[in-house]
Amino acid sequence: MTSSLPANHGSRDLDRSFPSSLSPTSSPSPSLSFDADNKITDAPLLSRDLSSNNGHGTAKHKPRRRAAAAGKLSKPKRQQSFSRDIGHAASETYLLTRLTFTLLRYLGLGYRWITRLAALAFYAILLMPGFLQVAYYYFFSSQVRRSIIYGYQPRNRLDLYLPENIDGPKPVVAFVTGGAWIIGYKAWGSLLGKQLAERDIIVACIDYRNFPQGTISDMINDASQGISFICNNISDYGGDPNRIYLMGQSAGAHISACALVEQALKEAKGEESISWSVSQIKAYFGLSGGYNLCKLVDHFNSRGLYRSLFLSIMEGEESLQLFSPEVRVEDPSFKDAVPLLPCITLFHGTADCSMPSTSRFKPTIYHSM
Questions:
Q1: Res 362: pLDDT
Q2: pTM for this prediction
Q3: Gap between the Cα atoms of 60 and 253, Å rounded
């Protein structure tokens, strides 16, 4: 997730001389008064200095009160800033509400979906003490640079986790978090960022649009733009542009792998409109990722990520192979791009129920990557 300066309320139109005091016949109704320097100031409707003398008021203006009132000139600016904040909050609330209802229309209110959500909420409550510690670090640590803009879309932001001492160029990990392509968020990588920053490694957690705000193509484009920003700007934050590592977890591993494969294909075709190169990535680490979507449709459907919703995220059943990195690299038309890929290391637990280990790359293609 810009601000504009408030309008300059100049006094050119008010550059006239006014009486410095009210005459006995002047009406006290205006709520504005003007001092000797022709500066507009706020004044109460009925001044306390108006004393009654047989029904006639006498105005007594004290310089001290006028000086104090002059300090209220910034009030319209504060009101404008407050109005902008209210407008921004309202627009964000509307967007979140609209996306929530759109997502619920896809999810429905099935029994499995509700039970999974309840289990997730209960699990989050159990982990709350640990979450609070990480949240405090995320929001209050001076080593965390939150929401650095890398593109023009609403979710084109990234967080940087910096080591305590930047005494030289540091290695960098560009991390794409998971979240079933629906609830991914850059803050999910805060624990990893904290742990690696303590070991003198800079971590950049890339945010991206989730469904229904975007489909898989939008997510891959966002991740690619985030990687491009890191490759081209990380030296400004103390990072070593020659030691950049790409990492993704779960859905983030799938998205980052797709971005890497797509970039290698562009370079193999000789496209000139590229903003980063796979040669800038020292290695890729995939954590519990799914790289063959064709094998995952039925599994996700049984786990509550229904077929219709999953296919909507992946832009239709006919696009599953296009967004399956394993299928892409095995295609003969991709043979010129395979040598361009960096060293790839995949981690996957064999007891993983959310993303089964059978969805990972086949061991037979590890050597070619």
A1: 56
A2: 0.68
A3: 75
R_g over Cα of the chain: 30
Tell me the CB-side half-sphere exposure of residue 351, using CA atoms within 13 A.
0
Mean pLDDT, residues 335-360 taken together: 86
Neighbours of 144 (CB within 10 A): 20
Question: Chain-wide mean pLDDT for the chain?
Answer: 77
Q: Read off the pLDDT of each residue in 1-15 and give the average, rounded to a whole number.
A: 41
Question: What's the Cα-to-Cα distance from 178 to each of 51, 108, 249, 250, 260, rounded to whole Å?
Answer: 72, 22, 5, 5, 16
d(CA 362, CA 132): 39
Candidate list 33, 190, 228, 250, residue with the active-site label: 250
Rounded CA separation 158/147 (Å): 5
Q: Tell me how far CA of residue 357 lies from CA of 288, 307, 351, 361, in angstroms.
A: 7, 20, 8, 9
Sheet strands (E) in 16-99: 32-34, 40-42, 51-53, 56-58
Which tokens hold the place of 69?
A: 């009132």
What does the alpha-carbon distance between residue 259 and residue 109 come to, in Å, rounded to a whole number?
Answer: 33
Respond yes or no: is residue 250 known to be catalytic.
yes
Residue 110 reports pLDDT greater than 70:
no
Residues 6+ apart with CB under 8 A from 194: 134, 137, 161
The model's confidence at residue 105, banded by pLDDT at 50, 70 and 90, is: low
Our answer to whether residue 35 is catalytic in this structure is no
Active-site residue (options: 35, 49, 218, 352): 352
